[in-house]
C-alpha cells in the first residue's frame, strides 16, 4: 500500500565477490556455482512490497574487473542505494570494497544509502576477513553492514528489504 517508489540501486565490488549471484538470488531465487563474470554491467528489476510503500528497484550489477572501473560512475550516478560487496575469503576483495566506499563518499550522491556486504558466509572455514573488521569499518564510515550468502540465501532477502525500508523512509 501507500507510495510507489522507483529506486536505482547499484552493486559494486571486486570481481568474483558475488554481486551477480546476490542479485540472481534476490530476483530469480537462483544460484549458479559457475556464474560467469559480468561484462560491462547487467540490469535487473524487482518489486518489493512493504506495508508503507511499494519499491521498484532498478538494479545495476556492475562488472568487478578493473578494466570496467571507469564505467562505474554511470551506474552509481543518481542511485538511491549502493551495495558494496566483498568476499569473506579474500582480503583483497575487502581492500577493494574500501576503495569503492571512498569513491562513493567522494563522488556519489550525498544522500546515498550504502551497505557493506560480506558475502560467501557459507565459506566460513576459508574466512580471511573477520566479521568484526568489516562491521567496524562500516560503522566508522556510516554504512550498514550485513553478512550474506548468495549460495544458501542467508540474509539476501533481508538485505534488499532493509534497503527498501530505508529508501521508503528517505
Ligand atoms: P564479476 O561479475 O566478475 O564482477 O563477479 P561478481 O561479483 O558478480 O561475482 P559472481 O556472482 O559472478 O560470483 C563469482 C563466483 O563466486 C561464482 O562462481 C559464484 O558461484 C560464487 N559465489 C557467489 N556468491 C557466493 C556465495 O555466497 N557462496 C559461495 N560459496 N560462492 C559464491
From TrEMBL:
Gene3D superfamilies for the chain: P-loop containing nucleotide triphosphate hydrolases (3.40.50.300)
Keyword Lipoprotein applies: yes
Residues spanning the signal sequence: none
GO CC annotation, single: endosome membrane
Sorted UniProt keywords: GTP-binding, Lipoprotein, Membrane, Nucleotide-binding, Prenylation, Protein transport, Transport
Source species of the chain: Trapa incisa
Name assigned to this protein: Ras-related protein RHN1-like
Top-level taxon in the UniProt lineage: Eukaryota
Amino acid at each position: 500500500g501507500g507510495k510507489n517508489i522507483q529506486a536505482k540501486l547499484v552493486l559494486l565490488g571486486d570481481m568474483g565477490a558475488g554481486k551477480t549471484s546476490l542479485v540472481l538470488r534476490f530476483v530469480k531465487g537462483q544460484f549458479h556455482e559457475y556464474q560467469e563474470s559480468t561484462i560491462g554491467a547487467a540490469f535487473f528489476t524487482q518489486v518489493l512490497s512493504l506495508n508503507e510503500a511499494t519499491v521498484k528497484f532498478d538494479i545495476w550489477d556492475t562488472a568487478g574487473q578493473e578494466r570496467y572501473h571507469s564505467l562505474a560512475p554511470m551506474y552509481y550516478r543518481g542511485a538511491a542505494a549502493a551495495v558494496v560487496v566483498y568476499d569473506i575469503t579474500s582480503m583483497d576483495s575487502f581492500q577493494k570494497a574500501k576503495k569503492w566506499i571512498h569513491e562513493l563518499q567522494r563522488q556519489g550522491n550525498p544522500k546515498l544509502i550504502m551497505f557493506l556486504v560480506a558475502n560467501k558466509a557459507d565459506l566460513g572455514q576459508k574466512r580471511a576477513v573477520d566479521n568484526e573488521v568489516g562491521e567496524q569499518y562500516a560503522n566508522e564510515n556510516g554504512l550498514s553492514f550485513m553478512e550474506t550468502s548468495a549460495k544458501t540465501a542467508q540474509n539476501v532477502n533481508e538485505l534488499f528489504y532493509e534497503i527498501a525500508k530505508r529508501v521508503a523512509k528517505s
